[in-house]
Specification:
The strands form 5 sheets. A 4-stranded antiparallel beta sheet has the order 2-3-4-6, covered by helices on one side. Helix 3 runs antiparallel to helix 7. Helices cover 44% and strands 9% of the residues. The chain is built from 11 helices and 13 strands.
């Protein structure tokens, strides 16, 4: 199924192998933009998982924006610089060199500096009330001043989240793996080909049976404590202090952010929005509109025409209670007779019968239901569903 993106045309160079939480494109050599994605809303039950992926992409983008908004108020040098523009569903960020590539040319001093910079970033996230949720080598990069930066916050959660404590424990394990790679160049999971193999390696690491790679000996205890869970009670800041006493502190680096915002604004000015793209609220509403076709409910769901028919079925018994008789002639009047009759007495308009107000009330209910049903009909047509059967 084809992916729908916020813009009709995006830069040619896409970073990464496929959609996960979002898609990243290289605007130029120094700027990337990240966008969520969505699939066309359809009532086909076999396509339901595509809707879940789309909604997950929206959620991941909201999480990222929440972290970057917080970092805008409380900045830190070891996170990518965000270029803030007037667009809600796109992130413009400075482009980083992937850590896997940068590590090939890194000196011992670079690696030790990067360790402290990663620990500084993680402890700062903890300080401002977040846990990353997906610490991994693939989410680390190096800027033009050789400073390590942590990115991709689509799995992050705040301190108020009920799973925050468990996520901190998971991040301790992942952090130890990143530290091991930074110092030794070895990622224990890099060559894994199956889930069973990954589980076996993790069991060895958690059991303290994984051998520390050459170059990571200085932080062997810290890394093993992270893998085995012995330091999960420690704040990340305490681990940073431990490492700082062992390793040399990073030297000051020059920033390289000139003209980035201008480049982003120029691209955004020329970009055309995709008419098929739906804002998150509209997309969620569209998904709810077809949920009755894809979810298994005990109660049968209704199409718009069925809603109107049900309304008529419910109201008909109420209508029969109100036998209409003319107030003057006492003759019976059809229920739907809208004839207006005037009383010449005092030249004022009087009601046709004693049940006029009750009848108008029931008509109001009917018309209200019909109006909502018609809106639902339009919503179904907007997402490409079949036209609805008209009411009898």
């Amino acid at each position: 199924m084809d992916i729908i993106l916020p813009f009709q045309k995006l830069p040619k160079e896409r970073l990464g192998i496929g959609p996960s939480q979002g898609l990243v494109y290289a605007l130029d050599e120094e700027v990337v933009l990240k966008v969520p994605f969505q699939y066309r809303v359809t009532g086909n039950p076999d396509m339901e998982h595509y809707l879940d992926l789309s909604l997950a992409s929206f959620v991941a983008m909201e999480k990222e924006i929440a972290v970057y908004d917080t970092l805008a108020a409380r900045p830190h040098a070891n996170f990518p610089r965000r270029i803030t523009l007037d667009v809600e569903d796109t992130l413009f960020l400075e482009r980083l060199e992937p850590l896997q590539e940068a590590s090939l040319r890194a000196s011992r001093a670079d690696r030790e500096s990067w360790v402290l910079e990663l620990l500084s970033a993680v402890s700062w996230l903890e300080k401002i009330g977040f846990v990353h949720g997906d610490l991994a080598v693939r989410n680390l990069g190096v800027d033009r001043s050789n400073r390590l930066k942590l990115f991709d916050f689509g799995s992050s959660i705040s301190r108020s989240h009920p799973d925050f404590a468990n996520e901190v424990i998971r991040d301790h394990f992942s952090l130890a793996t990143c530290l091991h790679f930074l110092l030794s160049g070895i990622d224990p999971f890099a060559e894994v080909r199956s889930r069973a193999e990954a589980e076996n390696i993790r069991a060895m690491m958690e059991g303290g049976r994984w051998k520390i790679g050459e170059g990571a000996e200085k932080l062997a205890d810290t890394i093993q404590d992270g893998w085995t869970g012995r330091n999960t009670h420690l704040p990340f800041h305490d681990i940073l202090e431990q490492a700082t006493r062992i390793l040399s502190a990073p030297s000051s680096r020059e920033e390289h952010h000139d003209r980035l915002e201008v480049r982003c604004r120029n691209w955004l000015r020329l970009a055309q929005r995709n008419p098929l793209w739906k804002p998150v609220d509209e997309y969620v509403l569209a998904c709810k509109g077809v949920s009755s076709l894809t979810w298994s409910n005990e109660e049968r769901s209704l199409l718009p025409w069925g809603i109107q028919k049900l309304c008529k079925t419910i109201l008909d018994p109420e209508r029969k209670k109100y036998v209409r008789k003319h107030l003057v002639t006492n003759e019976e009047i059809k229920y739907d007779d809208e004839t207006i009759r005037e009383s010449m007495e005092h030249d004022v308009l009087i009601a046709i019968d004693e049940h006029e107000r009750a009848r108008v009330y029931l008509i109001t209910i009917r018309d209200n239901i019909r109006g909502h049903a018609m809106k639902l009909t339009k919503a179904r047509k907007a997402v490409g569903l079949d036209s609805c059967i008209p009411d009898d």
